[in-house]
Target: Trimeric autotransporter adhesin YadA-like stalk domain-containing protein
Amino acid sequence: MKKKSTQNIIKTVSLGAAVSALLSSTSPVFSANVAITGATIYSSNDPASAYIAYIKGSHGSIVLNGDNDYCGVDNVAGRGGAQKPGTAITAEEQYERFINNETFSGRNPYGSSTKKVNWTGGGNSVAVTSYGIAGYDPRVNGSSAINDFVWKSTKGVVSVGNPQNGVTRQIVGVAADTDLSDAVNVAQLQALREMILTGGDSLIQQDGQTGLITIGRSVNGDTIDIINNEKQSRKISGLGGGEVSEHSTEAVNGSQLWETNGKISELETEIDNIETNITQIQANVTKVAQNTSAYFGGGADILNDKAPTYTVNGSKYNDVGSAFE
Model:
């Protein structure tokens, strides 16, 4: 029987020809060569011998022995049992070793490790990832560049399966936790999904049925400022042409303004032509008025609304008709 065993949490553990009984609700125990109630245990640890017989235990006693000092149970002697050479410790001392992560003879059978840890036995769980590997960061869609214990492991991985051989397990009974390095459960992921679908505290939301996107519908305010952190203005692109009507509140885009500017330019050209024509007409009217004034004589000035004066037989007249009566 080999001393190093893959940990399984069960009520009894078969150890070669022996059965080491474990109390309910206690931590798993690693043991080597256990003799109980008069039984003789044989071990194959010695390469020079096929088997080595270990001492029998008397009634009501447990006797343990091994070929070195690296054993899960250091040394336990019960009622009437002979204590074998080694370090005798109490149950309280054994508990303190486990809690305080103490090291013995350069090894640590109780605490944490930087090596890969297989959580279940039988070869069903294999840890293939070393410690110090950065985790996935969705913000960069790759390994995190943050070099701290939250994003990069400081100890060996714990495996509950063997992904390379398609062996996976679900971990159940996990409560929602709070710290940065704690595991999350499905309930937390569902809550996150619901918040994303409903927009959360975001001002921008989309109706899942109609596809309508609204901005700030559930909050107050009548001004939107899109200036950047350097107090510079921004452009808005992808804007469709808005309705141009008396009561429209839709925005217009550059294409619509370009079309309007083209029409305004055409109108300005037409106005310039009209002004030229009017100027020409004014010149012609002035010429006609001057000629007409000259034709009427008598100091007539049609442009300045001055009537001519005619003297006939000592009488003055201001129009041709009266002068010839």
